[in-house]
Amino acid sequence: MNLDEVLDTLHLSEQSGHLISTEEGLVLNNSLLILQNENHFRKIFFWGRIFGTDNDYYVAYGYRSDAMHDRVFYYSTNCVNWGLLPLPTDYAKKLVPLCTARFQGDPALVLDVLLEKDEIAFGEPLTEPQVRKLKEEDRLSATIHLINHEVLVVPRGALYKRADGAIVESLAFEGLTPLEAREIKNFLHYRVPTQKWNTNLLTRDDYNFAMDFLDPLDVDIPEGCWLLNLTVSEDTVVLKSLYWPGMFFYHLLKTPRYGFVYFGNGIKCLDVPFFLNGLYPIYEDFFQGK
After folding, report:
1. The Cα angle at residue 103 between residues 85 and 224, in degrees rounded to 5
2. How many CB atoms lie within 10 A of CB 263?
3. Where are any strands of DSSP class E within the chain?
4. Please, where are the H alpha helices in the chain?
5. N or C: where does the chain have the smaller number of CB atoms within 10 Å of the terminal CB?
6. According to the model, what pLDDT value does residue 34 have?
7. How far, in Å, CA of 84 to CA of 116, rounded?
8. Three-state DSSP class for residue 186
9. Model pTM?
10. 123 Cβ partners below 8 Å, 6+ apart?
11. Which residues, in sequence order, are CB contacts of 133 under 8 Å at separation 6+?
């Protein structure tokens, strides 16, 4: 969520099931403005809020030139004092999916993560259960990395890849139309591409590499892991991820305004393939609104 839109789009965050109060939004807006000036960021964004049992983590990021490769993340527990988020380690990224306990809200806390027998996260299957140590700050960093990699979204055409390889926001982007917004392939992952370069080329008649260099959402597995909704007036589209409940993306159609925010406990839902296949009928009825 862009700094300029934090106060203007508070009502949109209600659709994620959580709300930023006006007072909270004012404090957040002022502190992010200071953070932007101190670090000379071209733009700064409010990323979201991860709930903890004692304190919550507020997360923000900014960049100076490249909208993808220059992103620097910060976190805070009071919306005022921001700390630099360390880069995620491979060790933490392997342990995070195995953490089922909620965040505490203390970055210095060291967690005990139980690895069951035959666990293969670190290569060979374990012959007996083990306990590994993980600092909560490292867990926070790895969790944000996974959410960024899997569910951060931009509309097609919002980012532009220049001839020198730099990725910038497109000044020519005027927003998707209601017809375009109904197709999940017109929304792209905001990450370094992992699919083959010709993934879009083979499926689009209007292919343009400067815009279609990112991975589209329609290749995500399983089909149906994204919820796409248009408002009744067809002026706003909303995307939600079943894998990461609390992730919320919005785009005001026919305008260049869009954003995403995360309000959740930082724990991935691994049961999505099961209830999409009808193995969990209770969950299936819930997501279909029955």
Report:
1. 90
2. 19
3. 43-50, 57-63, 72-76, 83-84, 110-115, 130-135, 153-155, 159-161, 167-169, 187-189, 226-230, 236-241, 247-252, 258-264
4. 22-39, 90-95, 136-151, 178-181, 272-276, 281-287
5. C
6. 94
7. 33
8. helix
9. 0.88
10. none
11. 110, 111, 112, 113
**Residues 175 and 146 sit within 8 Å (Cβ to Cβ):** no
Q: Which of 28, 63, 101 is nearest to 261 (CA)?
A: 28
What's the Cα-to-Cα distance from 164 to each of 18, 97, 210, rounded to whole Å? 40, 37, 11
DSSP state of 103: B
Q: What is the dihedral of CA 276, 279, 281, 285, to 10 degrees?
A: 0
Parallel, antiparallel or unpaired: strands 43-50 and 258-264? parallel
Task: List CB contacts of 160: < 8 A, sequence separation 6 or more.
Answer: 167, 168, 169, 170, 172, 173, 210, 211
Q: Whose structure tokens read 């910060």?
A: 74
- pLDDT at residue 55 in the model: 93
- Write out the two tokens for 243: 């894998």
Look at residues 285, 247, 290 and name the one whose alpha carbon lies nearest to residue 265. Answer: 247
Return the percent helix, strand and coil in the chain, to nearest 5.
25, 25, 50
In whole angstroms, how far apart are CA 215 and each of 71, 103, 146, 212, 261?
A: 19, 31, 16, 8, 20
- Give the pLDDT of residue 118: 75
- pLDDT for 50 equals 95
In the sheet that holds 258-264, the strands lie side by side as 83-84, 72-76, 57-63, 43-50, 258-264, 247-252, 236-241, 226-230
Q: Which residues does 264 contact at the CB level (< 8 Å), separation at least 6?
A: 48, 50, 51, 244, 245, 246, 247
In whole angstroms, what is the distance from residue 83 CA to residue 76 CA?
A: 6
Spans in the chain with pLDDT lower than 70: 1-16, 197-203, 278-290
Are 67 and 114 in contact by the 8 Å Cβ rule? The answer is: no
